[in-house]
Amino acid sequence: MPNYPVIEKLKMLKKTTQLKNMLLSKNLEFLVESHNGISAKIAEEAGFKGIWASGLSISGQLGVRDNNEASWTQVLEVIEFMSDGTSIPILLDGDTGYGNFNNVQRLIKKLEQRNIAGVCLEDKLFPKTNSFIKGDAQPLADIEEFSGKIKAAKDAQNDDDFVVIARVEAFIAGWTLSEAIKRAEAYYQAGADGILIHSALRIPDEILAFKREWGDRCPVVIVPTKYYSTPTEIFRDNGFSIVIWANHLFRSAVTAMQQVTKTLMKEQNLLNIEDSIVSVSEIFRLQGATELLESEKRYLPKNPKGVGALILAASRGIQLGKLTEERPKCMLDMQGHTLLSRIVDTYRTVGIKDITVVRGYKKDVVDLPNLHYVDNDNYGSSGELVSLHLGLKNIADDNHDLIVGYGDVLFKKYILQMLLDSEEDFVVVVDSEKKSSSNNLVRKNYADCSLPYSKDAFYTKVYLQQIDRDLTENQRSGMWTGLLKVSERAKPILLDVLNTLLLQPEIQQRGRMLILINELIRRGYRVEVLYISGHWLNVDQIQDMLKAEVF
Ligand code: SPV
Ligand code: MG
Fold first, then answer.
1. pLDDT in tens, 60-78
2. Is residue 59 within 6 Å of ligand 1 at its C-beta?
3. How far does residue 130's CA lie from ligand 1's centre (Å)?
4. Cα separation, 36 vs 488, whole angstroms
5. Residue 239 contacts residue 206 (beta carbons within 8 Å)
């Protein structure tokens, strides 16, 4: 059903009541045929107050004959889609009721469950044939038997307003007015809410004669498929209740499909098709695609966006001497895996697929599959901020949060998970246990944080105050691991700060990440600290290579 606001829903009458009101109304009302969900929606949108679920059209759109070849449950499935997609009542063309009184009672139960407002039953024999195919050869039902069916239908309904129409086929089968009246009267006495009087003549004589004789005993419904040239005023003036346009959506759809297939077959291109058919977006509109988008905003998790990774791997790793003559450090082999592939694997295990590597030294050797590559060809004379800048510019438009890391730092996957769970715009990972370096000659990126690691720090947000290689022992809260997360919305900030910093030649040449992070803090941006202890490894020296093998 379309998404009606709550108030509208409350104001809306039950579908059964709507149909009953149409039947009892003093005005001439109209039902238009629909044969599936979309045609039902189109009918409602055009302004029709009710739908005729035509047996001819439903069987026709299934590509079978109007001879009960489609089973009654198959019909039920079709009208369920029609009913779900609309708020106007549906009168089902229930043929002969798909069996005897017992089958009719079960049918009524199922129709009520699917919010179908009424059924029309015709006094012929199962399996029926369409009235316009040799109608005069068609046997009619026994009056008493059919009256029993109508009575059974009325007894089966739970909803008082459910409508049962008895369709009199006497004229179709070549019988006289008196036979038609006799039958109508019997069905009316059995409880029918209205009579559908059918005729295959090209003029309305039979139905007008019937109506004159019948008077106003109960509402009379007509189907002017054959006497289509009769002005509607005639029906109105003669006090008919409902006119059914019984098959015209289906027939017009067939016309359109035949025209399009013919043109396509002949022309083998779409030039003469495109402008004469609805756009794909019109189909989306009819399907209610916008409503789903709105619902997704309401009900889907807020932050399903992906996360990307940027790995800075342009430098050689000169401390490793001869080992990095032919390949950069990140491509050194450790028991069959390169450093870079181990890092990439860690990202992938937490679902990060969009990984960009900035390469420089011996870039041709850096060729792992399924990565994006950005090259810093001036790696020899530029600092890592230039690499970051090149990488960042390349992925600035991805709607991703971003994790920046180095191509020579290994870490456990839970550390990435912590970063993914954090919500601040800038987040760094600090090892609280590392407050000094094993090698005093190497100056490390020490972090000075708003709170040293403690149980308290676990419950409070901790922010970075500065990263510096020359912090005193007292100032050191730990060591920065080289991991930085930047939220999607903060990426432009990072790029902007970077652009400004890189205007300075010495930063171009030697600028390191810590300069950038300190500048963010200086400008007032908060950089959250996530504390860890261990579980990461910066591969700098030969002895680190050994540690990496068992990491
Ligand atoms: C239908 O639409 O299936 C009908 C009306 O029963 S008619 O085809 O005119 O018999
Ligand atoms: Mg029919």
1. 999 999 999 999 999 999 9
2. no
3. 7
4. 45
5. no
Choose the residue to mutate in 58, 228, 247 for probing ligand 1, maximizing ligand atoms within 8 Å of C-beta: 247
Residues surrounding ion ligand 2 at CB below 5 Å: 55, 93
The DSSP-derived string for 219-288 is -EEE-TTTTTTS-HHHHHHTT--EEEE-SHHHHHHHHHHHHHHHHHHHH-SSTTTGGGS--HHHHHHHHT
The span from the CA of 337 to the CA of 331, in Å, is 9
What's the CA gap between 235 and 497, in Å, rounded? Answer: 79
Q: Phi and psi of 20, rounded to 5°?
A: -60, -45
278 burial (CB, 10 Å; 0-12 / 13-18 / 19+) is: exposed
**Choice from 64, 198, 202, 207 to test ligand 1 binding pocket (greatest atom count within 8 A of CB):** 198
Ligand 1 in reach of 61 Cβ (< 6 A)? no
Rounded CA-CA distance 212/209 in Å is: 5
The best mutation among 121, 131, 169 to test binding of ligand 1, ranked by most ligand atoms within 8 Å of the C-beta, falls on 131
Does 225 contact ligand 1 (Cβ within 6 A)? yes
Residues 519 and 497: their CA atoms lie apart, in Å, by 8
CA–CA separation, 22 vs 91, rounded Å?
11
Q: What is the pLDDT of residues 148-180, one digit of tens each?
A: 999 999 999 999 999 999 999 999 999 999 999
Tell whether ligand 1 has an atom less than 6 A from the beta carbon of residue 56.
yes
Residue 131 CB less than 6 A away from ligand 1: yes
Q: What is the pTM of this model?
A: 0.64
Can you say whether the dihedral through the CA atoms of 227, 228, 231, 234 is positive or negative?
Answer: positive
Concatenate the DSSP letters of all residues of 522-544 into one string.
HTT--EEEEEE-S-EEE--SHHH
Q: What spacing in Å lies between the alpha carbon of 246 and ligand 1's midpoint?
A: 6
Does 8 have pLDDT greater than 70?
no
**Residue 142 annotated in active site:** no
* Alpha carbons 262 and 116: distance in angstroms, whole number: 37
Tell me whether strands 401-406 and 51-53 are parallel, antiparallel or unpaired.
unpaired
130 lines ligand 1 (CB under 6 A): yes
Q: Are strands 29-34 and 242-245 parallel, antiparallel or unpaired?
A: parallel
